[in-house]
């Protein structure tokens, strides 16, 4: 199960060693430990661009992980992979699943908004004005939610909301 890391740097090695020590000390079940190992290996593979391997590890982690909070991050990372591969429908599904388990993930809200914004731009390219307005409205909704959770982040989104007349000042 442990993944051989090809491009280990000092920080990655240190994190791995510390995580292994913490897992040995903490009173966690065998399944929880195994889920963490799969998750860690998935993150390592993902950072190296090995998306198929990362997905395999994340799916294994999902089978073992019971904690909703931890599952939300696994689902989020799966969404990241699908999004980066251009599979936006699948990415949206996984981002929404992650938010169902943990509604405090501004990064998932932001990524959903980015996808809807992209779809809005594509609709403009194909002269589908109504569809573009619909997608931009959805993007604005999710960016506003992300900004509420992380007001110092997503400056470009805040500027877009402001310049397009979508009020980003949320109370």
TrEMBL record:
GO biological-process terms attached to the record: photosynthesis
One Gene Ontology cellular component: chloroplast thylakoid membrane
Location in the cell: Membrane; Plastid, Chloroplast thylakoid membrane
SUPFAM superfamilies: TPR-like
Listed transmembrane segments: none
Residue ranges of TPR repeats: 35-68, 35-68, 72-105, 72-105, 120-153
Entry keyword set: Chloroplast, Membrane, Photosynthesis, Plastid, Repeat, Thylakoid, TPR repeat
Residues in coiled coil: none
Membrane topology value: Peripheral membrane protein
UniProt KW Plastid keyword: yes
Protein family: Belongs to the Ycf3 family.
Functional note: Seems to be required for the assembly of the photosystem I complex.
PANTHER family xrefs: CELLULOSE SYNTHASE OPERON PROTEIN C, TPR REPEAT-CONTAINING PROTEIN MJ0263
Protein name as catalogued: Photosystem I assembly protein Ycf3
